[in-house]
Specification:
Layout: H1 15-21, E1 26-30, E2 35-37, E3 45-51, E4 54-59, E5 65-71, E6 76-77, H2 79-84, E7 91-94, E8 98-104, H3 105-114, H4 116-139, H5 145-160, E9 161-163, E10 169-171, H6 177-184, H7 188-200, E11 204-205, E12 216-217, H8 220-230
Length: 231
């Protein structure tokens, strides 16, 4: 089953809140490449990603786009801006056909005011997401570059992996060298060299021959040992 079609086990919303939110607002569909949320725009709504895949990014001081994370079904989008009423802190763009439930601020305000438990559950989901984001940023910035890239691959295999051939795990999102470079703070050339080393070691397949191109983790256990041993 594709990660683009089903609510993943890593979703931070409990089933009751998910069902309630999906009964509010209106549905919106986005083609691959379309922007769901613009960085700096007013935070007038929150989105619940029902199906598809989106990429979160920010603009650096030079105006270049820096990739932060993928978001799959079950994810909240724009929740920080909804809570603090500040402009959007990031851009969210569809990287596959994507369907969202759009919750305008007045609609969501009324819903949360009527059910304090829903407000608590939403706050808990936001806090859990913030903790996860912080943890990843720290881990992706510590250790040798090969170790940091290994952590990125393991995390994405766990969150977005689908079974491949044998024990292979296909990272079923477009995790390009450029996106990995953004996550670990390195150049794309260095990332390419490190991925080549991992491929030579029989741990990954960089997916040059696959269409669409997808990274594969060939031996997750061995990759984890390599990462832990080098940490």
């Amino acid at each position: 089953m594709s990660v683009h079609e089903a609510l993943p086990s890593s979703a931070l919303l409990d089933a009751e809140l998910w069902d309630a939110l999906c009964g509010l607002g209106h549905q919106a569909e986005f083609a691959s490449g379309e922007t769901l949320l613009f960085e700096g725009s007013p935070s007038e709504s929150m989105l619940v990603l029902e199906a598809g895949l989106a990429a979160v990014s920010v603009a650096d001081p030079a105006g270049d786009e820096v990739f932060l994370a993928f978001r799959g079904p079950g994810s909240l989008l724009g929740e920080f801006g909804y809570l603090d009423r500040r402009p959007r802190s990031a851009m969210v763009r569809a990287v596959a056909a994507t369907r969202c439930r759009v919750l305008p601020r007045p609609v969501l305000d009324r819903f949360l005011a009527a059910d304090p438990r829903a407000g608590q559950a939403l706050s808990a989901a936001v806090v859990a997401k913030m903790r996860a984001v912080t943890d990843r940023r720290v881990r992706y910035a510590q250790g040798r570059i090969g170790t940091r890239i290994g952590r990125v691959l393991l995390d994405h295999a766990d969150e977005f992996g689908t079974p491949g051939q044998g024990d292979d795990v296909v990272i079923d999102v477009p995790l390009s060298q450029g996106r990995i470079a953004d996550l670990v703070g390195a150049g794309t050339r260095i990332v390419g060299l490190e991925l080549a080393r991992l491929q030579e070691a029989g741990l990954v397949d960089t997916g040059y021959r696959s269409r669409p191109r997808r990274l594969r983790v060939l031996d997750r256990a061995a990759l984890a040992v390599r990462v832990d041993g080098a940490a």
